[in-house]
Design goal:
With 262 residues, this protein is α/β, with parallel strands linked by helices. The protein has one domain: P-loop containing nucleotide triphosphate hydrolases (Rossmann fold, 3-Layer(aba) Sandwich). Helix content is 42%, strand content 12%. It is built from ten helices and six strands; from the N terminus they run H-H-E-H-E-E-H-E-H-E-H-H-E-H-H-H. It has a six-stranded mixed beta sheet with strand order 2-3-1-4-5-6, with helices on both faces. Helix 1 runs antiparallel to helix 2. The longest helix has 18 residues. The structure holds guanosine-5'-triphosphate and magnesium ion. The site of magnesium ion has 5 residues, from helix 3.
Amino acid sequence: MAEIGQEYDVIGPTELEEIKEALANTGLTTAVGAIQDYFEQQEHVELNIAVTGESGSGKSTFVNAFRGLGDEEEGSAPTGVVETTMEPKAYLHPEHVNVKVWDLPGIGTPNFKADKYLEEVGFQRYDFFIIVSSERFRECHVQLANEINKMKKKFYFIRSKIDCSISAESRKKSFNKEKTLNDIREDCVRGLESIGVTSPDVFLISCFDLGSYDFRRLQETMKKSLPQFKKYLLMLVLPNIPPQCYLKQKHIPHPINVATLC
Ligand SMILES: Nc1nc2c(ncn2[C@@H]2O[C@H](COP(=O)(O)OP(=O)(O)OP(=O)(O)O)[C@@H](O)[C@H]2O)c(=O)[nH]1
Ligand SMILES: [Mg+2]
């Protein structure tokens, strides 16, 4: 789990100002009351993250990795080579019940309708979405991204199973890892741009190798866009990747290098 440093303090600058004001204008008892009220409110704050994408793209595996679990540990989401997740299911962090990662059923059947799907999975409850794609950018991603945009919610786009793509391409004589990664990224960026997402950011991830590729950058990006207490909750649950893995991590230079989507 992430260590809580100053950067992730629960009380943000606005709250600090309010507490200072209470101290200056009304005295200690009122200030203590203000702090207590603040913490009581926060106890009820939840962070709800929805993981969506095509069937078999690795959503449940990502949910497990996100919670710092392997696929066969107690309480982990079932994963498999055949369609596995049929209903939205919330997975709580073992220690921080205020954070729910929702494993959603797969999309992508020929008659898929993103608006209907999102209604069925109860889109209102989610703070943001993670769209997982294990292959090329497709029509179902277009629909999903469009609908999420319409709802004025944020999404992060993950291209998963990067280890598989690299391993398959590495059989070619002309294999170049950086170029392969760049091609994958470009394909997703182009797809998102074609539906009007400005400066899209795409995260290349292997759940079997979180220290490589973009997992760490995804963590950092998600953190930036949340309000103070939700950011704090997220920091409590993010899996720790050993520092030696960060060193291995390579960021592929990309002309569009903007941190957030939407
Ligand atoms: N090599 C590799 N395999 C992965 C990765 N992520 C998932 N898989 C495998 O892909 C298969 C499908 O993974 P799931 O997590 O069950 O996929 P899902 O999207 O939840 O599938 P549904 O629940 O059916 O919609 C499993 O065999 C996983 O082990 C990855 O990063 N690398
Ligand atoms: Mg699943």
